[in-house]
Every structure is written in structure tokens, then in C-alpha cells.
TrEMBL record:
<dbReference type="InterPro" id="IPR016201">
    <property type="entry name" value="PSI"/>
</dbReference>
<dbReference type="Pfam" id="PF01437">
    <property type="entry name" value="PSI"/>
</dbReference>
<keyword id="KW-0325">Glycoprotein</keyword>
<dbReference type="GO" id="GO:0016020">
    <property type="term" value="C:membrane"/>
</dbReference>
<protein>
    <submittedName>
        <fullName>Plexin-A2</fullName>
    </submittedName>
</protein>
<feature type="domain" description="PSI">
    <location>
        <begin position="178"/>
        <end position="227"/>
    </location>
</feature>
<dbReference type="InterPro" id="IPR002165">
    <property type="entry name" value="Plexin_repeat"/>
</dbReference>
<feature type="domain" description="PSI">
    <location>
        <begin position="36"/>
        <end position="86"/>
    </location>
</feature>
<keyword id="KW-0472">Membrane</keyword>
Amino acid sequence: MPFSHKEYKVTVKENDKYERSKEISKQISPEINTSACSSFRTCSECVKSVPCNWCHNLGCTNIGDKLCPYGIALKKSNINKAKECPYIIPGPILLASGIRTFIDVKLYAPDPIISDMNIICQIKLKNRVSHLKGVTINNSVYCHPIVLNTKETLTGSFRLNWGGVDPYSNRVPVTVFNCEELAKNCESCITIDPVFRCGWCKSISSCVIANQCTGVTNWSGNNQTCTIDKNVRKKEQFDFVAFV
């Protein structure tokens, strides 16, 4: 893993760079109405409108050649084609409740300058928003670990912010699940959709993911056979006889 176990929290101010882009645009070219371009908040929206261009450090503008950092080739830093807009390659993110998890996603980023920018991973679940530092390695983004606790299954969204603009990329779905709440017995546990990685742990008699169970032989995964402990079977037989 590219990270130590130290976690970071990052506060992102969504409008700072956006307002800065509008102000600089007005100072450089006051006679041009920049409101149309500056109203677009994502790369894909921006480049669909002529003469708007997307600048990685400031956002959407109609004078990208003046706003983009000096010394960086405009064909790389000043985007005017939708196919050049970076985005997260779609795919669900599944997080087990109570487990410290490293999130990694594949990234389409034709502009190499993206790899040199600060990456922020954002997870939004209900009214909670978490920001984590990330790093780009070989077209993949690795986010610092996070632990999310829930009893119910929660669905939300994940996105990346990089450069000076927020929001920047597309969103992908996030699901936080709790195996123990999805199943209360072995039979129902091992039939849960395998994408959740739930299995029955005999030592604690609970439905959990494998690394929550002590001993590999104690854990039965998807479509495996449920085995009942002899002592449990004897107790069940005794309870039945006593009831009769």
C-alpha cells in the first residue's frame, strides 16, 4: 500500500477557486462577459460550450490561454475537447462496516499534469461528507484509509477533486454494508451476493467478512456448506426433547 497507517482529514472550500477564476477573468479581459463560462462547474459541461475552455487550476473560462499556468503546454493544461476531460472509470465501491479500508479507483486522465496535482477523495453518505487525501499511481488513485460504521446498508457517492476546482470529476456509487445485519444465520449468510464478501464465522456465530473471523476453517463463504457444531446440535436436540 502506498500509505502509512496515519489518517488525514482535509477541508475543502468549494467556491474559493471558482470565485478566483471569475475575478481573474474580469481583471484580464473586463470587456468580455465571462459569466457564461464561469457558470459551468465541471470539465464536461464546460467544453461543450464555445468558446469555453477548462483550465485544471481554475476551472471554466473563455480566456484559458491567459489563466492557465505559464510554462505548461496549452494542449495539455487548457482542455477544449470533451474526450480529454478526466473521469473515474465507472464501477461500484463496496465498503464493509467497521473495517479500515483503502479505496482505490481507476482513472482516465489523458493529461499527465493531473498526476502532479493534489488529489482529494470525497465520500458522501446521507448528510455526512468525508474528505481524504489521495495519490495517483499509474492511472489509479489510492485514498487514505477510512472506517465507516453502520447497521443498515447505506448508499452514497464517491468523487475525486484535484487541481483547484471542486467539483471536477464524475461520481460513482458507494455502498456501505453490514454482513451481520444482512443475515442472522449461516444458511442465509452464505447465499448473500458474493460481491459483499460475507461469510459465516462459526467461532462467533455471525455473518462477517473473512478478516473478521479468527481461523480460516471457521469461515464459510458464498455457496459453501453450513456445518453445525456438535455441541450446538446436541443442545438443539435436548431443547426439542425437553419441549416435547
